[in-house]
Design brief:
The protein has 275 residues and is an alpha+beta fold. It contains 6 helices and 8 strands. Strands 1, 2, 3, 4, 5, 6, 7 and 8 form an 8-stranded mixed beta sheet that branches. Strand 4 and strand 5 form a beta hairpin. The N and C termini lie far apart (61 Å).
């Protein structure tokens, strides 16, 4: 799992996956060979078979959790390290094209989310967006023909059709900054929500950028790395505990079996006697 979640995957993706496949073939192949040899020699198959099955389960779970941790936590955390921070940006007269490399965005004073002009897209989950605006009233200027490129976003934090947008720091009147949405899986649905929003409000959105609205985006950014490391260690700990529990259970079962039901032991070779 460590190969899948830390920075060497970000910097050397091909090498990491080659090493991962090589280790899987080596370890699983060795375990399968030992179990096969034990079966061919009519030896006690319980422990070799358990060892092989435990490795298969551990490899499957490590791949599942490793990919999830990378896509949702560690991958975005390393992406943010390569993105830029911008300050005092007025969303009313700025375009997304200028800030394609933005990671953290501090908007100018008076910026807020217009929750009354929110939009959404539903695909199992509800993807919510609301325009980030800077006006005297804090409401989107529907008479303007300029591109609306800055949106606050969140998942399952609004009703669709939107009547109550509750994403990010929606309740903080002093929040005026955001952390860029970089997860490509969710980004595709936010783009669809932006297209629906553009048609509904008759406002173009040429280069939309999506942000998790926050009072302190740096704290939010660091939380990705923190939660990713915590997930890695928790998964590792749980794997060790489950491995020990399964081994103890197998040992207890084989010990408590009646002798007639125990797997036959391999016959010992006769020792020649010399007169």
């Amino acid at each position: 799992m460590a190969l899948l979640v830390f920075k060497w995957r970000f910097e050397h993706r091909v090498i990491v996956f080659c090493v991962k496949i090589g280790l899987e073939v080596l370890v699983l192949g060795t375990a399968a060979y030992l179990a096969f040899q034990c079966w061919m020699n009519k030896g006690k198959l319980g422990w070799p078979l358990y060892f092989l099955l435990a490795l298969l389960v551990a490899d499957f779970e490590a791949n599942q959790w490793g990919e999830w941790t990378w896509k949702k936590l560690m991958g975005p955390a390393y992406d943010y390290e390569n993105l830029q921070t911008y300050g005092n940006i007025n969303p009313s007269n700025s375009t997304g094209k200028r800030f394609g490399d933005a990671g953290v965005m501090y908007f100018s004073q008076g910026t807020s989310m217009d929750r009354s002009s929110a939009g959404c897209f539903v695909n199992d989950q509800t993807y919510c967006i609301a325009p980030i605006v800077r006006t005297d009233s804090g409401i989107l200027d529907l008479a303007s023909n300029s591109s609306q490129d800055f949106f606050a976003v969140g998942v399952d934090c609004c009703d669709c059709p939107v009547v109550n947008f509750r994403c990010g720091a929606w309740a903080d009147p002093f929040a005026s900054s955001g952390l860029r949405q970089v997860d490509n899986a969710d980004l595709a649905y936010y783009l669809l929500a932006a297209q629906k929003w553009s048609a509904a409000f008759n406002r173009p959105t040429v280069n939309p950028l999506f942000f998790h609205f926050a009072s302190d985006p740096v704290v939010l950014e660091r939380s990705f790395m923190k939660r990713g490391i915590q997930t890695f260690f928790w998964c590792s700990f749980c794997a060790v505990v489950l491995f020990i529990f399964a081994a103890s259970t197998l040992d207890l079962i084989t010990t408590c079996l009646p002798k007639s039901q125990r797997p036959p032991r391999a016959a010992k070779p006769a020792v020649p006697r010399y007169v």
